[in-house]
Write a structure and sequence with these properties.
Blueprint (H helix, E strand, L loop, with lengths): L2 H9 L24 H7 L9 E3 L4 E2 L3 H7 L3 E4 L12 E2 L3 E5 L5 E5 L7 E4 L8 H6 L14 H11 L3 E4 L6 H9 L1 H10 L1 H26 L5 E5 L12 H7 L1 H14 L3 E5 L8 H7 L3 E3 L10 H8 L4 E3 L8 H4 L2 H15 L5 E2 L12 H14 L4
Parallel strand pairs: 3-8, 8-9, 9-10, 10-11, 11-12, 12-13
Antiparallel strand pairs: 1-2, 4-5, 5-6, 6-7
């Protein structure tokens, strides 16, 4: 059984030979550039020139030899070949910075910086709906995004025999709206100006729909997983009331899911952090096939309960080890126990792809990464 066959069986809620493994297949299942060389060294792999896969989070590109050594079953395909990782950085003295295609500003300290953080919100302040009409929105059909896309998917599926994930198309509709307004203005609008927020969400969704539609014209018949992300939850609750989420976000998420399902047989993957158990039935209803990252440390996100309640209707991708505490500060034995716990909860019946709960951060010890992977190999096999 090759990797692509293994993943597709799991996504169809069937048991393959072993649990599929993802490292670096999306921009939320990756590894920070500081941790990547340490894990390579622990595996006895030679040093390589570091390539950045995702700029904001400083995720490393997982090289082919690393993917082969670990038995990684999925590979990312980035529209445009990763335009977002090839940004012309500018200097502001203590930091480097850039503005993305939404005109949001990001900066990282030169000394000790690990990530790019927002510093400039292009729609902050007292704005009107007319200002949204006048805003210089970027062209979602920039031809550079789609050059070579089909060939890249075929390289993964036909040559490497791995599952191809279309990833890094755009941040989520809610996220982009909050980032463009700035959190203070966005949440003020959320309480007092729904017409403005609704129009902003519609503008963003329109761009995302156009991008996805064009991408599906190229690879809708051959891509395995169509990845998008939008964080709706915090550590102990949703970021807005369920009623507000269902009014503002659910119909717009459904628009994208409907489009993807109409133009592709690929599975729709939603990355959504936090305590989101209350809306998982809604996610299933609108057409989400795969849920990530399964933030096991958030309220209500018990893996055994989630599998029991929703495991027949949605695939769990992630949740293999708690990254907030265990993988970071635990001992190797604690990591092994955690991985066994999550495998016991999530692997029966298929419908599970193993990945850490969100990206592996830069200060995770290499011995913990080895313990995670060895435990998956030992206990992640179906009988």
């Amino acid at each position: 059984m090759n990797s692509r066959e293994r993943v597709r069986l799991a996504l169809d809620h069937k048991e393959p030979d072993r649990v599929p493994f993802d490292l670096g297949g999306t921009f939320v299942t990756g590894i920070h550039k500081d941790a990547y060389p340490r894990w390579r060294k622990a595996l006895g792999l030679p040093p390589v020139e570091l390539r950045i896969f995702e700029m904001l989070q400083q995720m490393a590109w997982v090289d082919d030899d690393m993917a082969d050594a670990l038995g990684v079953d999925v590979r990312p395909v980035v529209p445009g070949g990763g335009l977002f990782s090839k940004i012309d950085l500018k200097d502001m003295g203590h930091s480097t910075y850039f503005h993305d295609n939404w005109r949001i500003g990001w900066r990282m300290p030169k000394d000790g910086g690990m990530y790019y953080d927002m510093f400039d919100h292009p729609l902050a302040g007292n704005i009107t709906e007319e200002d949204l009409d006048r805003f210089p929105w970027f062209d979602p059909l920039d031809p550079r995004l789609f050059v070579g896309l089909r060939e890249a998917v075929r390289q993964v599926t036909d040559v490497q025999k791995r599952a191809a994930v279309i990833t890094q198309m755009s941040a989520g509709t809610l996220e982009v709206a909050a980032w463009m307004r700035g959190y203070a203005d966005f949440y003020t609008d959320l309480g007092a100006n729904h017409p403005l927020i609704a129009k902003l969400l519609d503008k963003i969704n329109e761009i995302k729909l156009a991008q996805w539609s064009r991408a599906m014209d190229e690879v809708g018949d051959c891509a395995d997983v169509l990845m998008m992300g939008d964080d709706y939850g915090g550590q102990d609750r949703l970021l807005m009331s369920p009623k507000t989420w269902r009014k503002l976000m659910k119909p717009r998420l459904k628009e994208i899911c409907d489009l993807l399902h109409s133009k592709s047989d690929g599975k729709v993957f939603l990355h959504c952090c936090g305590a989101i158990r209350e809306i998982i039935p809604d996610l299933i209803e609108v057409g989400v096939d795969i849920l990530n990252p399964i933030q096991v440390s958030a309220a209500g996100m018990d893996t055994a309960e989630l599998k029991r309640e929703f495991g027949k209707d949605i695939v769990f991708w992630g949740g293999g080890v708690d990254t907030q505490r265990v993988l970071w500060t635990g001992t190797p034995d604690e990591v092994r126990a955690e991985v066994r716990h999550r495998l016991d909860d999530l692997m029966p019946g298929g419908g599970f792809v193993f990945a850490a709960t969100h990206n592996i951060q830069g200060d995770v010890p290499a011995e913990n990464l080895v313990a995670m992977w060895e435990t998956l190999r030992e206990y992640g096999t179906y009988s």
